[in-house]
Amino acid sequence: MNAERHAFLLVGSPRRGKSTSAALGRYLGDRLAEQGWWTGRAFLYGLIGNAERERDLLGTLREVDLVVLAAPLYVDSLPAVVTRFLELWARDIADCTDPPRSSLTAILNCGFPEAEHNHVALAICRRFAHETGLGWCRGLALGGGEAFGGRELDQVGGMARHARRALELAAAALAAGEHIPDAAVELMARPIVPRRIYQWIGNRSWRVKARRAGTLAELRARPYEANS
Ligand SMILES: Cc1cc2nc3c(=O)[nH]c(=O)nc-3n(C[C@H](O)[C@H](O)[C@H](O)COP(=O)(O)O)c2cc1C
Q1: pLDDT at residue 16 is higher than 80
Q2: Cys staple from 109: which of 60, 73, 87, 142, with CB 3.0 to 4.6 Å?
Q3: C-alpha pair distances (Å), 122 with each of 4, 17, 105, 110, 182
Q4: From 74, 124, 193, 205, mutation site for ligand 1 pocket: most ligand atoms within 8 A of C-beta
Q5: For residue 24, which atom of ligand 1 is closest to its CA?
Q6: How many CB atoms are located within 10 Å of the residue 142 CB?
């Protein structure tokens, strides 16, 4: 047991109730807590833009050993609120006379079934850590995160077994002061369900949404094609 270690989870999804990012981050945080870590968390949406809460958060981050950023992929990158937060955090680290004591890890998930879509956003996190002087513990990338629907990983059953195992391996490594191992990265990147099934469910869900919106006949419309 090591009661002195502090981890802080930052959730970069605007979904408060059912966020896959939050569920992934919580699962990792719970595993760290089992190993005696103190864990805290904050949702960046609603916090960034509030000067007092931003100050409190940055003050907290100066004191913690590990920051876990859990976020969805938005337009092949980090959500805007996460980028804004990184700008504020970089400025705070630069203003501080002492070098940062924390390390950073990121857990990113995207809607497309392939985990690789997250790689540019993960590289942004890695670069951020290197340029600010934070430690970088590596990150995890999940594809098809929408399939979890923001449920707690314990409630998703076999579909989340690789993600759970990946986070358990990651927590054990992080608690030992090590980088996230290749095995965890590989497990997290495994497809949640076969790609064809995921696409079939995704297409059906778009059709249901379009029917409700009265735009079913326009799903394959290409309004700009004539001008290109
Ligand atoms: C505005 C917006 C942009 C998105 N852009 C992408 C994208 O570029 N690639 C992708 O695979 N998924 C994209 N997604 C899907 C989310 O990454 C995906 O639904 C994720 O599981 C949401 O996680 P959350 O529940 O933590 O918010 C986008 C979703 C939204 C709302």
Answers
A1: yes
A2: 142
A3: 28, 24, 9, 12, 15
A4: 74
A5: 26
A6: 28
Q: Which residues face 105 on adjacent strands?
A: 68
Determine the pLDDT at residue 210.
96
State the Rg of the chain over Cα: 19
pTM summary value: 0.92
CA distances from 31 to 38, 43, 100 (A): 11, 20, 24
Q: Which tens digits make up the pLDDT trace of 74-91?
A: 999 999 999 999 999 999
Nearest to 44 by CA among 74, 3, 15, 5: 15
Q: What does the pLDDT average to over 103-132?
A: 97
- Concatenate the DSSP letters of all residues of 146-190 into one string: GGGTT--GGGSGGGGHHHHHHHHHHHHHHHTT-PPPHHHHHHHTS
226 has pLDDT over 80: no
Instruction: List the domain boundaries for the chain.
Output: 6-193, 194-228
Q: In CATH, what class is 6-193? A: alpha beta
20 lines ligand 1 (CB under 6 A): yes
Amino acid at 25: G
